[in-house]
Design goal:
single chain; 5-stranded mixed β-sheet; 11 helices; elongated
């Protein structure tokens, strides 16, 4: 993770300037040839540790802190352990308090090692600044972690959205294809005209599926904004959605109540997908011959209902992602969905999708 001083230019400049500063400080300290030579070596070690903190933090800390202590003892007139502060920041933004707090205590100990050479007010002030630096680095780390978590959640949400889209597109089209293929096989020898009609329905369902998949993939592929994509399906296309189901032997009636009007795109797509999934489930699981789709345009919401004459309670025990996927669709636009056996027989799906909340 990058810290506040991790611009590439600063990465190169800070160790160089820090090394020069300590070299000059050691030379001016006048501690004799031996200590001056040792101090110069420690200055170079300290600069190297700061330079290596991004790639080898543990090694940088293990080498840099003893070098910082040696420099403090050789040149105690320099109160501020600059190299140790850089290492403290790097450790804090990379690790939690369990690691950074002991590091903070070590740096405060470095200040205490030369406290006798300075006024107590100066030492206390620098200690407070060191703690403030640690707190700032900890806040930086927390913010970075929050951004990473938000990115992971956004990625998971997008993956779930794509999975729902793929499920809706493939489940509907493949169900129609399977039913039509079985019908074509049954009448292939005796009624070739019906077999050909079933094959044409299979072709149309396959083309529709390819078109929807192309639209979905173009929305997530890099550079997709430069491509011409088909618009998302809308409720006005429900009759076209029902056509292949009718060819497969499921009578579908679509009725609209209230004043039909343009809806927010999210509500429009969620409603279409809920109807699509409900009809697909009816075709695959319910053993139904008829399904009634009703759209009611209320002032504050769109209500939709899909009722079939199939097995009802038996169909409700089926497993899979169909019903949960419809509930997720409704929840995306702060709506609700109920699904279960109808009192008069068959299976009922009812959804209420608020309009104003989705705008």
């Amino acid at each position: 993770m990058r810290g506040a001083w991790d611009h590439p230019a600063l990465r190169a400049a800070v160790p160089v300037l820090l090394g020069l500063f300590y070299l000059v400080t050691v030379q001016d300290a006048g501690r004799g040839p031996l200590l001056t030579a040792v101090g110069s070596i420690l200055a170079l070690v300290q600069a190297g540790a700061v330079a290596a903190r991004h790639r080898h933090l543990a090694v940088a800390v293990a080498v840099g802190l003893p070098a910082a202590l040696g420099l403090q003892l050789i040149a105690p007139e320099v109160l501020v352990p600059f190299g140790a502060l850089f290492l403290l920041w790097a450790v804090t933004v990379a690790h939690g308090p369990a690691t950074s707090v002991p590091m903070l205590l070590v740096v405060l100990g470095l200040l205490g090692s030369v406290a006798a050479e300075h006024r107590s007010e100066d030492v206390l002030f620098l200690g407070a600044l060191t703690i403030a630096l640690w707190a700032l680095a900890e806040a930086w780390r927390g913010r970075a972690r929050a951004l990473e978590e938000a990115g992971r959640r956004a990625l998971a949400d997008e993956q779930a959205r794509i999975a729902r889209e793929l499920h809706d597109v493939l489940a509907h089209s493949v169900s129609v294809i399977v039913v039509q293929a079985a019908a074509a096989d049954d009448v292939f020898d005796d009624r070739p005209d019906q077999a050909r009609a079933a094959l044409r329905a299979i072709e149309a369902a396959g083309r529709d599926a390819l078109g929807e998949l192309r639209r979905l993939l173009s929305a997530v592929r890099p550079g997709a904004e430069e491509e011409a994509t088909a618009p998302a399906p809308r409720l006005a296309e429900l009759d076209a959605l029902a056509a292949p189901l009718r060819h497969a032997g499921l009578e579908v009636a679509v009725r609209r109540d209230g004043e039909a009007r343009p809806l927010p795109a999210g509500v429009e797509l969620s409603a279409y997908r809920i109807v699509q999934e409900a009809l697909t489930n009816t075709l695959r699981h319910a053993g139904a011959t008829r399904a009634d789709v009703r759209l009611h345009y209320a002032p504050e919401a769109l209500e939709l209902e899909v009722v079939d004459d199939g097995r009802g309670a038996a169909a409700a025990t089926r497993t899979g992602r169909g019903i949960s996927g419809m509930r997720e669709r409704a929840a995306l636009v702060t709506g609700t969905l109920e699904a279960g056996p109808h009192p008069d027989g068959g299976f009922r799906v009812h959804a209420r999708l608020p309009v104003e909340a989705a705008r």
